[in-house]
Design a protein that fits this description.
Residues 82-313 form the HpcH/HpaI aldolase/citrate lyase domain. Residues 53-72, 324-346 are annotated as: Disordered. By secondary structure, the protein is an alpha/beta fold. It has 14 helices and 10 strands. The chain has a domain at 71-310: Alpha-Beta Barrel (TIM Barrel), CATH 3.20.20. Strand 9, helix 12 (290-295) and strand 10 form a beta-alpha-beta unit. Helix 5 packs parallel to helix 6 (164-174). The radius of gyration is 32 Å and the shape is globular.
Length: 346
């Protein structure tokens, strides 16, 4: 191999040739072992032969086993899980929700402004916190299911499932052929770690939670059959759409709505999740708080929406300030130190 010697004379030379950037190096500064032929600096590189390198091979990853902390596993272990709906698609709010201890976050593409790209950002935000994400689709379709599942959420929620036929279609959208019709790009999508997880096809359904929403009168009539469909893990109640279906859009707490909701709940609870049945999931309302849902046998309870949490906190904050100003105006300018401390500590 050639050796390059930097001489003191070269270092002292103040001038360099622009035409030859190597002009500051003396020809005597280059020396080679006598056993090797000299190499011209002007010799084209493509004439030099290099040894052929064999491609590096990585040892295959072991097929991962189903997670013992997945939503599906925790439900099977008898836990009641508490989650939040994320409509803002804010990574910051998603991170706060995860760090606060929610068991799951529902990324709501049905009513939130975000779609697939925004959902991906939320999944990446949640990943370091190990908080499972469920994606609620904007509509009941194979195309949306495929795009959502390729992102790799732990759960998928199908809206407006009105019959066992719809439920069977939903399950088929989640399964690869021959068990279903899900389009396959498992060698490159995020769900398989971009193809790095070689065991993905062997157990991709083990941790995936398939949820079907019952939101209409027709769906309630078929709720037992929907819960019994193979592959349906949860039946999610939709109290607002159910109230609209009954003609009580502005009154979801109406007696008739509550009775219809109880009928649906009983239908799901008749099924045995350990024997092909489904777990009961739902969303709390002001007149029907989370603790009540838990008492009635719900296994998954969503008790908050990020928009609503911020709205309520903002309204309370403004009200607190304006009330303090009104009270302070009657005190002849005296400063209420205790009141200020209380306000800002909140």
């Amino acid at each position: 191999m050639a050796t390059l010697t930097y001489t003191a004379a070269a270092a002292a030379s103040p001038k360099l040739s622009l035409r030859n950037p190597l002009s500051f190096i003396s020809s005597k500064s280059l020396s080679f072992p006598s056993s090797k032929p000299s190499i011209s600096l002007l010799k084209p590189l493509n004439s030099t032969k290099f040894p052929t390198l064999s491609p590096l091979k990585c040892s295959p990853n072991p097929s991962p086993s189903p997670s013992t902390s997945s939503l599906k596993s925790r439900l099977r272990n008898g836990e009641t899980l508490y989650g939040i709906f994320l409509l803002s698609f804010s990574p910051t709010l998603a991170e706060i929700a995860a760090l606060s201890g929610y068991d799951f976050v529902v990324i709501d593409m049905e009513h939130g402004p975000g779609e697939i790209h925004e959902s991906l950002q939320i999944l990446r935000t949640l990943s370091p916190t190990n908080t499972p994400a469920i994606i609620r689709l904007p509509e009941f379709s194979a195309a949306w299911a495929k795009k959502a599942l390729d992102l790799g959420p732990q759960g998928i929620m199908f809206p407006m499932i009105d019959s066992p036929k719809d439920a069977k279609k939903a399950v088929s959208y989640c399964r690869f052929p021959p068990d279903g019709i899900r389009g396959s790009a498992h060698t490159v999508v995020r769900a398989s770690n971009y193809g790095i997880n070689e065991g993905y096809l062997s157990n991709y359904m083990e941790d995936l939670l398939i949820m079907c929403q019952v939101e209409t009168v027709d769906a309630v009539k078929k709720v037992e059959e929907i819960a019994a469909v193979d592959g349906v893990d949860c039946v999610q109640m939709g109290p607002l759409d159910l109230s609209a279906s009954l003609g009580y859009l502005w009154d979801p707490g109406h007696k008739n709505v509550r009775e219809m909701l109880r009928t649906a709940e009983r239908g799901v609870l008749k099924s045995d999740p350990g024997d092909g049945g489904a777990f009961l999931a739902g969303f709390a309302m002001p007149h029907d708080p989370p603790v009540e849902l838990g008492r009635r046998g719900y296994h998954m309870v969503s008790g908050a929406v990020d928009f609503a949490l911020f709205r309520n906190a903002a309204l309370a904050d403004v009200k607190s300030f304006k009330n303090s100003v009104t009270v302070g105006s009657d005190d002849d300018g005296e400063e209420d130190k205790d009141g200020d401390e209380k306000y800002w500590s909140e």
